Amino acid sequence: MSANDAPRAQQPSAPYDSAFLKACRREPVPHTPVWFMRQAGRSLPEYRKVREGIPMLESCMRPELVAEITLQPVRRHDVDAAVYYSDIVVPLKAIGVDLDIKPGVGPVVEHPIRTRADLAQLRDLTPEDVSYVTEAIGLLTRELGATPLIGFAGAPFTLASYLVEGGPSRTYENAKAMMYGDPELWADLLDRLADITAAFLKVQIEAGASAVQLFDSWVGSLAPADYRRSAMPASAKVFEAVAGYGVPRIHFGVGTGELLGLMGEAGADVVGVDWRVPLDEAARRVGPGKALQGNLDPTVLFAPAEVIEAKTREVLDAAAGLEGHVFNLGHGVMPSNDPDALTRLVEYVHTQTAR
User: Fold this and answer.
1) Residues 134, 205: contact at Cβ < 8 Å?
2) What is the pLDDT of residue 41?
């Protein structure tokens, strides 16, 4: 059976009626919807072919290339949603922050923010700064039809950490030193980033994105009290800024088992869960009124097919009593993942959960 032959109810005629958006709204679904973080790119040979010789940030600013890369996993895997191809530092680059994404390293900031004067790097983001986003999403929504498009942005805490550290870090020593040692400067930095992030998400929604995800990849480094005091207000500001659009808001972080309840409290409609906490336990921590997203360990995809199915079954069983469930990995697709394993995983979830 091919992925396209998987049992489905009548196909939706608009994104609003899709299984993905219904699950986000905690409504009955014809099957558990599936999408993967970092599905656009990374593991696909067709992605590597079209990206050949094009730097990462440049690839995010070419509308036709962005559209092609975003569509590739939808065509190949039959996932229930597309995720906009971009990077969390794109809005920072768009307002003139001197940074680049270096292969094998990640985002590197030329002049890290360490003093109040350094905040001058962060001006407001306007739609004109990211006109290529509006153009790309216009191309995508015409091609996707009833398949929803997920917009995304980096959360203020993670963006601030990159800006203060100057690049990736394992200890976040400079960022935390500012957070603890100069809490007013830290709060002002995150507040400014919240405005930039909200503006970036608004551009995506107004162009046609059906849902948005706030990606807080470093926030798991915080204790709950520090999260509530020093990160949550900025994330809550972002979620509140886009609340009036009525699109589902997803919140995801890595290593955030102790923060799940607070992340939902920040304003998310859907809380993403990494692989460390079973979904039934995550639901207890988050509380009622939220859908959950997750949470197969990405490394399971390197195991034999029967193991992948068994571990996927564990995730589905743990999700059986949830108000709403969007199947995903507990983090992003790895570059060396076998694309065919992802295709088979989508088919398996669809067939096992067909109602």
Assistant:
1) no
2) 83
Q: Can you read off the two tokens belonging to residue 4?
A: 């396209």
As annotated, the active-site residues are 38, 42, 51, 87, 162
Token pair 């469930």 is found at 325
Structure tokens at 133: 């986003």
The position carrying tokens 């003139």 is 96
CA distance 84 to 220: 24
Cα–Cα distances (Å) from 101 to 82, 121, 170, 291, in that order, read 23, 18, 17, 33
CA 61 vs CA 30, 87, 134: distances in Å? 36, 10, 11
Q: Select from 264, 199, 242, 213 the least CA-distant residue to 83.
A: 213
Residue in the structure block whose two tokens are 């036709």? 64
Q: Letter for the amino acid at 25?
A: R
Q: State pLDDT tens for residues 139-154.
A: 999 999 999 999 999 9
Which pTM was predicted? 0.95
Give CA 342 to chain center in angstroms.
18
> How many Cβ atoms are within 10 Å of 19's Cβ, its own excluded?
25
Helices (H), the chain: 19-24, 45-51, 56-59, 63-77, 90-94, 131-144, 156-165, 173-181, 183-207, 224-230, 232-241, 260-265, 279-286, 305-318, 339-353
Q: Which residues of the chain have pLDDT under 70?
A: 1-11
The answer, yes or no, to whether the previous bond of 174 is cis (omega within 30 of 0) is no
**Average predicted confidence (pLDDT) for the chain:** 95
Residue tagged 């590197």 (tokens): 108
- Ramachandran sector of residue 246 (left: φ over 0; alpha: ψ -120 to 50; beta: rest): left
User: How far is it, in rounded angstroms, from Cα 117 to Cα 150?
Assistant: 35
* pLDDT of 16: 95
In tens, the pLDDT along 35-58 reads: 999 999 889 999 999 999 999 999
